[in-house]
Amino acid sequence: MRIALIGNPNCGKTALFNRLTGANQHVGNYPGVTVEAKEGGLRAHADCRVVDLPGVYSLRTYSAEERISRDFLLDGAPDGVINLVDVTCLGRGLYLTLQVIELGIPAVLALNMMDDLHAGGGSVDTQALSEALGIPVIPVSAAKNQGIQALADSILRVVRTDKRPKKQVLSDGALGQCIGQVNALIADRAKSAGLPLAFAASRLIEGERPIADRLALSTRERESVERCVVRLEEQVGADRAVASAGTRYAFIDRVCADVLTVPKRPARARSAAIDRVLTGKILAYPLFLLIMGLVFYLTFSVLGPWGQDLAERGVQAVTDAADRLLLDLGVHPALRSLISDGIFAGVGSVLSFLPVIVVLFFFLSVLEDSGYMARVAFIMDRPLRLIGLSGKSIVPLLLGFGCSVPAIMASRTLSCDRDRKMTLLLVPYMSCSAKLPIYAMFAGAFFASAPGLLIVELYLLGIVFAILASAVFSKTAFRGKSAPFLLELPDYRLPSPGSVFRLMLRKAKEFLQKAFTVIFLASVVIWVLRSFDPRFHLTADGEQSMLALIGKQALPLFAPLGFERWEICCALITGLTAKEAVLSTLSVLSGGAALTALFADRIAVFSFLIFTLLYTPCVAAFAALRRELGSLSKALGVALMQCAVAYAAAGVFYQIACMVV
Ligand code: GDP
Ligand code: MG
């Protein structure tokens, strides 16, 4: 049994999905976070699968994620639909509901954000709404976990009893008549094409060609449909699209007036007041910088180091204990070295940065959940336009600070192909969280007086490169204008501790998973390559090891960037698997000695960090890029370009800095 979950962007589908299934998917307070259908088993009914679909306003539009939702409903043969509507903008949500009802699949309307409605003193007559629409209506609050069980029971009931919405909702008026006539004309065709009749009729009336083709209508049938439409246009006095949408909205307005007690919107008024400052002409950008600066300061100079210190001590204690145990047990020195110098050193070096990551995502999720991040998209629209990008690109770009993989996927929300490809290419310049441990490590070791500042500089540098790159792109490969962009700003609210906590938990889990899989493996491989010489004799002298041979091959290539040790080359190469591996490799190779010894001076360190910031993110990001570009050779080209840019940038910096200093 499969249940589709459909609704407008940002109405809380993913939050509801998580409640229904116990999953922990990203709930974002801006549209465009979910771009793929996600599936999960209903709690206590694992055989019943719930599919979280990307948000859409209507089933006729054609951006990539909208197509996913529509295709799933039409061709994925779901057994039931939960249509989620944000009750605080009920009218807009019901437009989609009318189309969902036309699909004729057993459906339940769930009204989300009931907590918000009640907080403003509003209420809704669900009984009357249910009668007007002909499907059950269940009030819920995904955030407060209210009404979830009732919703699950209701959808199971309608699916089991196969209760389909029968009623033709729009039955009277010119549109109602027109639908009735077209229904009669195409009934047989719809049946043989496997399309829901009411849906097909409405799409035809609105003039959707592909539907006519799918129904395999003859020329005469097409003409008959067109005659009905002409009559409708005459009666309403507007063209087909306007006549259809207008009638629907008029119907919805009537229903809303009947069932809804409109809340006072203290939140809206308060948001407007806050927005006059936060997104105002003068203060928007300074405040944005200030807020981000504060987040970085608190993360990297106050809370982060404290947590990191604690974690390091913990890791050290465990490492020592394990080492002692191995010594007592008298295991072979090689095995002991593998465990202590390889696995513990490698994985441990990465693990100690867990607190920094968690703290950063705490702040970011507070900013997101409060509604500020959506404002960032809004205030960034103008500058992004200047460099030939649309404000809509900001969502993937912001996600890129977390991880390039979901960010690359989120670029699908851009309906215009030019904007989409350009955004794909820029995402890697948003420094992802896997690079953070590297920055934090070097900032602590080399720039201890103001570690936060160095990290901010690196992030800004990435952004500057993105700006330069997009300026170049829009003058060369991607000429033209970006598509206009409409973003709805949610009201400001206090962040919910639950959703902030869940995001932190998810980040921590992802981080740990990576540490114990990719980094673990990379550490073992690096240890083996470092401990054996080419004839597989154990060697204590690192210089004789296989790894040294490999690294020394690459050394001349990296010399212009100021890297004089083969260890650095090896770290950068393993960094292609995952960025944390740069750090774990350096730790395994330095064998407990200070990393500072590997670099001649700070200029070399900075050159190294620039290279790390700019070169190809990791295999996972590469795979995502390949999927989105739909071609291996193009993706390889992009990866090569990224490495070339990184090489050039680090090289130019190093050469110039050496001349100046
Ligand atoms: P989606 O785009 O439809 O998947 O929406 P999300 O699940 O990502 O949620 C959008 C925003 O609405 C998030 O900030 C949620 O925290 C918030 N939200 C979801 N459900 C509720 C609710 O019942 N009440 C309130 N006040 N906020 C909610
Ligand atoms: Mg979502």
Structural domain count: 4
Total beta strands: 8
**Rg from C-alpha positions?**
29 Å
The biggest beta sheet is recorded as: 6 strands, mixed
- Low-confidence stretches are none
Beta-strand share of residues: 5-15%
Report the average pLDDT across residues.
Answer: 86
Q: What is the percent of helical residues?
A: 55-70%
List ligands, each type once: guanosine-5'-diphosphate, magnesium ion
- Alpha-carbon distance between the two ends: 69 Å
Strand line-up in the sheet with most strands: 2-3-1-4-5-7
Shape field: elongated
Provide a count of the helices: 28
Structural write-up:
This protein has 661 residues and is mainly alpha-helical. It has 4 domains: 2-160, P-loop containing nucleotide triphosphate hydrolases (Rossmann fold, 3-Layer(aba) Sandwich); 173-239 and 251-260, Helix Hairpins, CATH 1.10.287; 284-481 and 503-516, no CATH class; 528-660, no CATH class. The protein contains 28 helices and 8 strands. It is elongated. It binds guanosine-5'-diphosphate and magnesium ion.
Can you give me a brief rundown of this structure?
The chain is mostly helical.
What topology does this entry show?
Blueprint: E1 2-7, H1 13-21, E2 38-42, E3 45-52, H2 64-75, E4 80-86, H3 90-102, E5 107-112, H4 114-119, E6 123-124, H5 126-133, E7 137-139, H6 148-160, H7 173-193, H8 197-205, H9 209-214, H10 219-236, H11 240-259, E8 260-261, H12 266-278, H13 284-329, H14 333-351, H15 354-370, H16 372-386, H17 394-400, H18 404-410, H19 417-426, H20 436-446, H21 451-475, H22 497-531, H23 546-558, H24 566-574, H25 580-590, H26 602-614, H27 619-629, H28 632-660
Parallel strand pairs: 1-3, 1-4, 4-5, 5-7
Antiparallel strand pairs: 2-3, 6-8
